[in-house]
Amino acid sequence: MEPCPFCNIVAGEVPARIVHRDEQCTAFWDIHPQAPVHLLIVPNRHLADLNEAAAEPALLGHMLGVAAQLARRMIGGGYRLVINTGREAGQSVFHLHLHLLGGRRMGWPPG
Ligand code: 5GP
Ligand code: ZN
What we know:
CATH class: Alpha Beta
Strand order of the largest sheet: 1-2-3-5-4
Largest sheet: 5 strands, antiparallel
Bound molecules: guanosine-5'-monophosphate, zinc ion
CATH superfamily: HIT-like
Structural class: alpha+beta
Helix content: 25-40%
């Protein structure tokens, strides 16, 4: 298996600015932030993408709840959640992650 950067962060083998951790998921700052607040929320267990996680609605719901809590704590105003799924959509790390972006005005449609 190829080494997975987000499994390494969850395992504590690679440093990251972790802002939340529980038994199901971990949240940390994106290394190349695209907004004043740009966090990634990942399941602790390796799941490649949303398609692989589709059979786990409890986990996905938990991650969304964590995102909303972090948004309240760290952004305050409006925010955007993004899940890029597949290379065509811009996914570059194949360990499921929610992007939580906020702290600036967002354009629509996204690029
Ligand atoms: P994707 O393009 O797959 O939707 O998003 C991957 C995100 O992970 C990118 O925004 C990228 O900056 C971030 N990223 C990639 N490698 C690392 C890493 O090792 N640490 C952190 N904190 N973020 C990473
Ligand atoms: Zn992984």
